[in-house]
């Protein structure tokens, strides 16, 4: 009686595959090797668990860089929130979309629908444009990380970047900023094997290190 795990299904899109002989190329995750004509390296033969456990340790796909560190992802997101939030508040104030009341010489601010709408548009646009451009928001660039397509490591398309941004920022802007930030920010701490955030799932993306 064998204790070896069953082989992965043939239609598994994330199974490590050895490219046919004579074809260099490899995955966009690969880095060029010296003297190679194709620009990419040939990943090693599939071994062990299709999601890691072989020569790449916890790296799920052949040639994939290390997955982004979850605490650093949270810090990068906080930086993005502060930067875009400051611009959002200034625009809301300039257009009179910020509600405030004065009582006894103090000023109390409250969020209006207009301010939420401005914040949603700015956050979604910021995340979509920068992710579709090179996979890096300013926060991720600071911490040497980028968003990549899970299946091949390429930069996400505009459609996938938009899906990811909408899931991440619409609930944040309109209803449950603190709770939603905690959920999306904490999801990657427990997700296996790809450390995906909740917003990465439908967009089929993953955050990897560039350092």
Give an account of the 3D structure:
By secondary structure, the chain is mainly α. Helix content is 41%, strand content 9%. The strands form 2 sheets. Strands 1-2 form a two-stranded antiparallel sheet. A hairpin with a 2-residue loop joins strand 1 (99-103) and strand 2 (106-110). Helix 1 (70-94) packs across helix 2 (113-134), helix 1 (70-94) runs antiparallel to helix 5 and helix 4 crosses helix 5. The termini are far apart. Residues 11-26, 31-59 and 105-110 have low confidence and may be disordered.
Helix content: 40-55%
Low-confidence stretches: 11-26, 31-59, 105-110
Q: What order do the helices and strands follow?
A: HEEHHEHHHE
Q: What gap, in angstroms, lies between the N and C termini?
A: 45 Å
Q: Report mean pLDDT, rounded to a whole number.
A: 75
3D shape: elongated
